[in-house]
């Protein structure tokens, strides 16, 4: 459905996007992960046509994206923005109409999303008088109100309370189930892991890893949790293919490189005293992300 | 969806937002009040001190000293100059560079004026002539009949010739001209500033990002300009219409037809002037990201409007027939304020209006193109004020 193909954007000496490519299929939730300044926002702005790429192109349903196609996209920008002095419902109706909805459909959709996102009592309130959390909900409604064919959400979870996060997760799953491709970025990697079908990891303007979380895991080794209460600090330091992630309550978390035999690790642990637990875990997305961007933070 | 529909949607939002706001009603009421106060103040100001420029030609040059003294005694401010060629003097009067040309002998002065001679000056000149005649009578000492001397002296007055028939409606026309100048100045300044503030509001609130994901920059700009322009047009029509009706009903104006014509010309020139200034205001607004920076970036544009306004008042009331006034009133940055004033006075010719409209439309086309480019380039840039040079650079 959505194909980003070799998109490149340069700001002076900074290469914000370096041949960024990825695909998002119909009904797929695609998580876009990367540090601050990695190029996520620039890529999304290019998809929405807010910025023009220096090279590469964006295709939707097989055709290069033009103005008419972009009208049907839904966008939640990283820097939130609404008319501060406009009332919630008026604002949503206006945005729906700008996206091509006729007046009746715009009113219906605005009312529906106001109710769905729990904003009914605020429908006639000026946006600037709402709490920050409620402003976020209005912003979300603004991305959804015209029944978009593609959703691009930049950090949609930031600033949401836990209840709103649940509502958003539900909405995104629902949209995907209806066949809408959803691209979103987030720093909350546990959420991305829980929600996304596929993940793209971007660093320094380049996509450094991509695929389903299971694909990323394959060939990335595993995480080993060793419960050896009597073990001295640094007991696992010299072992081949092993990186110590951290020690907590006598439990040592180890990153084991792919193809490493785990028995020497067990032997080393037993040499320190009793071993009460020895468990392989799937690496979390957060750990995979650190592998991919090459930052050893723990 | 057609671009025209998009532009209309944007314009309609501006219309609804502004017309619904209390500030629109308050603003309209305040404009009417300011307008009334302004006219009252101006009529007293202009009635007061002003300099009368008198040109003396031929033998009349001899009265230079006595005239200055006589005028000072009567409390009128007179600047006396010598004119060699009476014909040149007359054309100076037609151009408004001189107020009166005095020729003839001191005992039989002839005065040429544009429309009418200032009463104080007339008395001063009469007194000079009478002194001269009296002196001549006293020189012929034999057969002095006091009654006849008095009669002769009493009959001696200056001979006044007007280049044009005095216009009894001149004062009313001048008042209307000043009112329309003030109204146009206020409207252009207010709604131009509103366009800039609207652009900055969209930038500072970052709403422009989701707007530009669905609307082209020129559609957003055009919608904003059209919407606010219509609000301004509505306000000007209401204020002007109320003014004309009130003036006609209360018999303040004896020429309601001219007043209506002035208002209609004013509305046309509001539209032309608004198109000229609004896109420039928008482009300037797009250079900054915060409301606090707006005033500084608008200063060059508001200065031009203030200049046009100040010149309009000065030129229309003092030099309505000067060729400088005519030239300035045709030039695009000043025409929307000056020309309607001259039309109210009845001093603008048809070809001047045509030239002004053609010049105006040409510059509107050029400015819209330039301002649209600056806007499209600058509107998504946040952070410090964007230098104009950078906004104009090709991407």
From TrEMBL, chain A:
GO terms for molecular function: ATP binding; ATP hydrolysis activity. Keywords: Antibiotic resistance, ATP-binding, Nucleotide-binding, Transport. It comes from the Bacteria. It is found in: Cell membrane. Its main location: membrane. The keyword Repeat does not apply. One of its GO terms (biological process) is response to antibiotic. Gene3D superfamilies: P-loop containing nucleotide triphosphate hydrolases. InterPro entries: AAA+_ATPase, ABC_transporter-like_ATP-bd, ABC_transporter-like_CS, ABC_transporter_ATP-binding, DrrA1/2-like_C, P-loop_NTPase. It is a peripheral membrane protein. GO terms for cellular component: plasma membrane. Residues 2-229 form the ABC transporter domain. This is ABC-2 type transport system ATP-binding protein. The lineage of its organism: Bacteria, Bacillati, Actinomycetota, Actinomycetes, Pseudonocardiales.
TrEMBL record, chain B:
Residues 22-371 form the ABC-2 type transporter transmembrane domain. It is found in: Cell membrane. One of its GO terms (cellular component) is plasma membrane. GO terms for molecular function: ABC-type transporter activity. It is a multi-pass membrane protein. The chain crosses the membrane at residues 21-41, 174-200, 221-247, 267-288, 297-316, 322-341, 353-376. It comes from the Bacteria. Coiled coil: none annotated. Keywords: Cell membrane, Membrane, Transmembrane, Transmembrane helix. Pfam families: ABC2_membrane_3. InterPro entries: ABC-2_transporter_component, ABC2_TM. This is ABC-2 type transport system permease protein. It comes from Actinokineospora terrae. The lineage of its organism: Bacteria, Bacillati, Actinomycetota, Actinomycetes, Pseudonocardiales.
């Amino acid at each position: 459905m959505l194909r980003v193909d070799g998109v490149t954007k340069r700001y002076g000496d900074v290469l914000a996007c370096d041949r960024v490519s990825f695909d998002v299929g119909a009904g797929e939730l695609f998580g876009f992960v990367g540090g601050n300044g990695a190029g996520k926002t620039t890529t999304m702005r290019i998809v929405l046509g807010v910025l023009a790429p220096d090279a590469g192109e964006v295709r939707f349903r097989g055709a290069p994206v033009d103005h008419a196609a972009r009208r049907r996209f839904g966008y939640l920008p990283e820097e939130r923005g609404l008319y501060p002095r406009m009332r919630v419902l008026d604002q949503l109706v206006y945005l729906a109409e700008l996206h091509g909805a006729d007046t009746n459909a715009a009113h219906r959709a605005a009312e529906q999303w106001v109710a769905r996102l729990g904003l009914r009592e605020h429908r006639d309130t000026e946006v600037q008088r709402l709490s920050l959390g409620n402003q976020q909900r209005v912003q979300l409604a603004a991305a959804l109100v015209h029944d978009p064919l593609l959703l691009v959400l930049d950090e949609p979870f930031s600033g949401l309370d836990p209840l709103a996060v649940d509502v958003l997760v539900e909405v995104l799953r629902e949209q995907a189930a209806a066949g809408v491709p959803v691209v979103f970025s987030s720093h909350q990697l546990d959420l991305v892991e829980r929600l996304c079908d596929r993940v793209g990891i971007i660093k320094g303007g380049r996509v450094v890893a991509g695929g389903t979380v299971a694909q990323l895991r394959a060939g990335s080794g595993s995480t080993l949790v060793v419960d050896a209460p009597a073990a001295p600090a640094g007991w696992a330091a010299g072992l081949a293919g092993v990186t110590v992630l951290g020690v907590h309550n006598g439990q040592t978390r180890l990153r084991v490189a792919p193809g490493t035999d785990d028995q020497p690790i067990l032997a080393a642990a037993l040499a320190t005293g009793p071993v009460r637990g020895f468990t392989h875990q799937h690496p979390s997305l957060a750990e995979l992300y650190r592998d991919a961007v090459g930052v050893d933070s723990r | 969806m057609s671009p025209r529909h998009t532009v209309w949607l944007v314009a309609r939002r501006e219309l609804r937002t502004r017309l619904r706001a209390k500030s629109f009603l308050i603003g309209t009421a305040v404009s009417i009040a300011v307008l009334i106060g302004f006219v009252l103040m101006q009529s007293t100001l202009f009635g007061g001190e002003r300099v009368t420029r008198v040109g003396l030609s031929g033998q009349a040059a001899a009265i230079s000293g006595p005239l200055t003294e006589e005028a000072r005694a009567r409390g009128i401010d007179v600047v006396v100059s010598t004119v060699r060629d009476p014909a040149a003097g007359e054309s100076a009067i037609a151009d408004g560079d001189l107020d009166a040309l005095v020729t003839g002998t001191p005992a039989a002065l002839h005065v040429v004026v544009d429309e009418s001679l200032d009463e104080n000056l007339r008395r001063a000149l009469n007194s000079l002539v009478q002194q001269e005649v009296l002196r001549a009578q006293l020189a012929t000492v034999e057969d002095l009949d006091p009654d006849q001397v008095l009669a002769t002296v009493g009959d001696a007055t200056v001979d006044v010739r007007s280049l044009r028939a005095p216009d009894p409606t001149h004062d009313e026309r001048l008042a209307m001209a000043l009112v329309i100048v003030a109204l146009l100045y206020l409207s252009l300044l207010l709604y131009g500033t509103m366009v800039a503030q609207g652009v900055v509001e969209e930038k500072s609130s970052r709403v422009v990002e989701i707007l530009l994901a669905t609307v082209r920059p020129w559609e957003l700009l055009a919608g904003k300009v059209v919407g606010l322009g219509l609000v301004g047009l509505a306000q000007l029509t209401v204020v002007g219409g109320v003014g004309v009706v009130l003036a006609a009903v209360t018999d303040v104006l004896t020429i309601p037809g001219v007043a209506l014509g002035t208002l209609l010309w004013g509305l046309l020139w509001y539209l032309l002037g608004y198109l000229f200034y609004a896109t420039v205001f928008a482009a300037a607004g797009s250079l900054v990201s915060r409301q606090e920076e707006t005033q500084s970036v608008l200063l060059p544009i508001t200065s031009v409007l203030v200049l046009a306004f100040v010149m309009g008042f000065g030129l229309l009331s003092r030099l309505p027939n000067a060729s400088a006034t005519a030239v300035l009133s045709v030039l695009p940055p000043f025409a929307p304020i000056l020309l309607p004033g001259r039309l109210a006075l009845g001093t603008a010719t048809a070809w001047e209006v045509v030239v002004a409209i053609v010049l105006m439309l040409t510059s509107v086309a050029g400015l819209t193109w330039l301002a649209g480019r600056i806007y499209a380039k600058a509107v998504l840039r946040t952070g410090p004020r964007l230098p104009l040079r950078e906004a104009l650079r090709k991407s």
